Q: What sequence folds into this?
């Protein structure tokens, strides 16, 4: 066995262990998808407050069609569902903490390492527990407002009492809970700093409803009028936001569902003459073997991304930009570019001995129907990934982690930072990932398996490479669609376009939902 193979085997084992460890760590991390759903719920609550000056009856029908017959009731159910998920996550984390067996006597070096690892894992679990408890407290604070608005006063008071009992852990939210109990309780009370606490601990519709209740009890008519004007302005803005994050994707998803049904029926009726059957069994002529595939992914994608690039940044005398969102965006972009450059370099030198390649490899053609394949694939992906995400939600119950870029983009209300995130997610990522996973990996696998199996395997690796347990199923389904689009169109521009549209839509949704929350 050559030295090169030994190094490759060691790196492969290291890659599997490191990636597996990272995936395991995401088990206790929250998903941002659940938070996005609540953000959209908050937009619906704000939008329902819009009152047109005339044609009220016609608007009521349109409102019911867009927002639902009772948005407040639906929001309360959504928040109660999120509350139960948070409680379940807390119980699971507590059980894991209790099940841990502390090692207190370091008899040898092995035990010392076990103690250090045990302490590190305990810190991670305790931090996760604190975040989960804080999330639960925030949810209950808002849920109580919804319950009070639905005239379920006693239920709201009970909910706020649970928040108030956590005074030692979250004193500000505890005080706010007591303020809200005083505003809606049977015996009304105006506690000190009520307005300041409401404005600091609540936002959006919840802040408006609490302030409305406060100003009504204080008989501040001028403040009420100002609040109503502001409420109408926010409601109009919410309707626009709702159309962006709801109507447009839903319309594209409806078109995609019709297209999907058409393609499946056509496949049954026309068989090999259908669009889905086009090039479905046509494999690539792959001159390299599995060792080259491992060399590219382990030596390039893993070694460069997980070891060399982080090591490079750790050696630079620069602190991690934790507080500045623009610097964070630049850091993410530079990191990604270095990862892509390293991986592509390893890929180039790995397959250079096999040059010249057949014309089918890494094909970019401006002509043809690649735009139709890209747009059509995007529309079809929406209902498929949505369905898989609903199933996935039942499996992970709000846990399993998410791409950290999602959280950064969600909280970034800076046009420059969002522009940089857009370059990373909507341009750099589609170019690099499609070139690597669809351009190289998928065709390479056709040497050992059929095209459909190559699509499945490459899609799973594509999903696992994002290092988030909760995203494996949705990203695998997206990867399958990307693979189908590429194998049928035989043009990398098609999956790149689909990928770019998907990431762009995600970023736009994050920006809109984040701005509404702020």
A:
């Amino acid at each position: 066995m050559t030295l090169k193979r030994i190094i490759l085997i060691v790196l492969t084992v290291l890659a599997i262990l490191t990636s597996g460890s990272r995936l395991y760590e995401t088990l206790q991390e929250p998903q941002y998808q659940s938070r996005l759903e609540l953000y959209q719920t908050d937009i619906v609550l704000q939008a329902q407050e819009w009152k047109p000056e005339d044609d009220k009856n016609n608007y009521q029908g349109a409102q019911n069609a867009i927002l639902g017959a009772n948005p407040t009731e639906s929001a309360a159910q959504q928040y109660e569902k999120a509350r139960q998920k948070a409680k379940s996550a807390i119980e699971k984390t507590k059980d894991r903490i209790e099940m841990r067996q502390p090692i207190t006597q370091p008899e040898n070096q092995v035990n010392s390492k076990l103690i250090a690892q045990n302490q590190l894992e305990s810190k991670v679990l305790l931090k996760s527990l604190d975040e989960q408890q804080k999330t639960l407290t925030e949810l209950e604070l808002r849920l109580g407002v919804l319950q009070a608005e639905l005239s379920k006063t006693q239920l709201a008071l009970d909910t706020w009492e649970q928040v108030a009992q956590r005074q030692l852990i979250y004193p500000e939210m505890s005080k706010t809970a007591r303020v809200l109990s005083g505003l809606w309780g049977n015996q009304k009370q105006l506690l000190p700093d009520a307005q300041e606490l409401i404005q600091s601990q609540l936002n959006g519709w919840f802040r408006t409803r609490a302030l409305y209740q406060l100003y009504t009890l204080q008989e501040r008519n001028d403040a009420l009028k100002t609040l109503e004007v502001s409420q109408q302005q926010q409601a109009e803005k919410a309707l626009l936001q709702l159309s962006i994050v709801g109507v447009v994707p839903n319309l594209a998803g409806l078109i995609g569902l019709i297209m999907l049904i058409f393609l499946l029926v056509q496949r049954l009726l026309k068989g090999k003459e259908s669009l889905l059957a086009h090039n479905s069994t046509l494999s690539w002529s792959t001159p390299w073997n599995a060792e080259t595939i491992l060399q590219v992914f382990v030596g390039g994608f893993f070694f460069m991304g997980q070891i060399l690039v982080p090591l490079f940044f750790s050696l630079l005398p620069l602190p991690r930009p934790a507080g500045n969102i623009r610097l964070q965006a630049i850091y993410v972009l530079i990191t990604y570019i270095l990862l892509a450059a390293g991986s592509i370099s390893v890929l180039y030198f790995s397959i250079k001995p096999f040059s010249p390649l057949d014309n089918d490899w890494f094909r970019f053609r401006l002509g043809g129907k690649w735009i139709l394949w890209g747009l059509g694939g995007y529309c079809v992906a929406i209902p498929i990934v949505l369905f898989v995400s609903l199933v996935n939600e039942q499996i992970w119950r709000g846990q399993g982690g998410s791409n950290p870029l999602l959280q950064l983009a969600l909280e970034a209300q800076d046009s420059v930072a969002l522009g940089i995130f857009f370059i990373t997610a909507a341009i750099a990522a589609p170019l690099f990932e499609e070139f690597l996973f669809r351009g190289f990996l998928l065709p390479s696998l056709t040497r050992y398996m059929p095209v459909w199996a190559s699509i499945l395997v490459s899609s799973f690796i594509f999903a696992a490479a994002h290092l988030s347990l909760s995203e494996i199923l949705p990203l695998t389904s997206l990867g399958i669609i990307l693979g189908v689009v590429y194998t049928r169109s035989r043009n990398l521009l098609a999956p790149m376009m689909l990928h770019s549209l998907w990431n762009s839509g995600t970023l736009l949704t994050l920006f809109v939902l984040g701005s509404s929350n702020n």
The chain has a mean pLDDT of 83. The chain is about 75% helix and 0% strand. The two ends are 59 Å apart (CA to CA). The longest helix spans residues 221-270.
